[in-house]
Amino acid sequence: MPRHVRGFDAQAAHAHLSRTCRRLGAWMKRVDRLENGPIPNDPRWRGRFDPVDALARAILFQQLSGKAASTIVGRVETAIGSARLHHRTLGGCDDATLRACGVSGNKLLALRDLAAREARGEIPDLRAMAHMDNDAIVAALVPIRGIGRWTVEMMLMFRLGRPDILPVDDLGIRKGAQYVDKLEAMPAPKVLAQIGERWGPYRTYASLYLWRIADIAEGAAKPVNRSQG
Question: Which residue did the predictor score with more confidence, 7 or 223?
Answer without folding.
Answer: 7
